Amino acid sequence: MQTPPRLTPDAALFLDFDGTLVALAETPEAIEVPPALVALLTDLHELLGGALAIVTGRPIDVIDRFLAPLRLPAAGEHGVQRRNAAGDMQERPTPDLHRVLDAANRVAGEHPGLLVERKHAAIALHYRQAPDLEAVCRTAMAGAVEGQPQLELLHGKFVFEVKPSGVNKGVAIEAFMREAPFAGRRPVFAGDDTTDETGFAIVQPRGGIAVKVGAGPTQAAYRLDSTRSVFEWLVSARDLLRQPAAAGAAAAGGDTSGGTHDAADGPGAGGEGDGE
After folding, report:
1. Which CATH number applies to 11-91+167-265?
2. Which of 4, 209, 214, 244 is deepest in the core (most CB within 10 A)?
3. What is the CATH code of the structural domain delimited by 98-164?
4. Number of C-alpha atoms within 13 angstroms, CB side, residue 128?
């Protein structure tokens, strides 16, 4: 599988967060976000005329906290939440999750090493620290959504998550692509988990670039092996976009005078974990 080409000025860039931009940790709160990554995303957001969005399983307010002071367009909780380039927030109604939360808390209380994450409109049961409990977690979460068609069970890397049905990362990317400044651009999406495949399925038929991060089967045409590789690819893109010809070709290019950030300052190689 090929490494992805460099970004062009007409790109609409969509990036997963955990396992793509930042290396995974033992728990979701334990990740580290290098200042160089925030600076790089700031540069790219300006150079692409604002056409950069985070598309993640995390809540948007959590992404804002990790990337502060940067606030990007974002889709959170697999598209349940979406903030457009104007800063307007859209959020799907939250279904009743009490049955799911009770089931997740019950199994986590019975088995050390499991972690329940309560989001705005989703419940995640992480088993990264107890991988032998995958079947136990699957049974508990599948039972909790049985007979509830308004809910959908996702299986990611060492995590089972229940969210509202009818929305995913691909749906979120489609929504962005109908709006300025993303409309009319070539979509590019990088992600590491099975939940990112819906995004790949949207960008590739549009002539876009789908980038799988890490190992595993995928429909993406391109692959990078780690978060470090993603950072280096984005640094190369930033440096190319800063060239005068590229800057002049940007549809709505911003100030391109941001400071230089070395790839050596970026995130370390990502491991296998509960990417979102």
Report:
1. 3.40.50.1000
2. 214
3. 3.30.1360
4. 19
Query: At which residue do the structure tokens 């606030």 appear?
Result: 71
Question: Domain-by-domain residue ranges, the chain?
Answer: 11-91+167-265, 98-164
Q: If you average pLDDT over residues 231-244, what whole number do you get? A: 95
* Catalytic residue chosen out of the listed positions 16, 18, 193, 274: 16
pLDDT at site 268: 56
pTM, rounded to two decimals: 0.85
- Beta-ladder partners of 118: 123
Residue by residue, DSSP assigns 125-162 as: EE-TT-GGGHHHHHHHHHHHHTT-TTEEEEEETTEEEE
Query: Does the annotation mark 192 as catalytic?
Result: no
In the chain, the amino acid numbered 235 is V
pLDDT band per the 50, 70, 90 thresholds, residue 251: very low
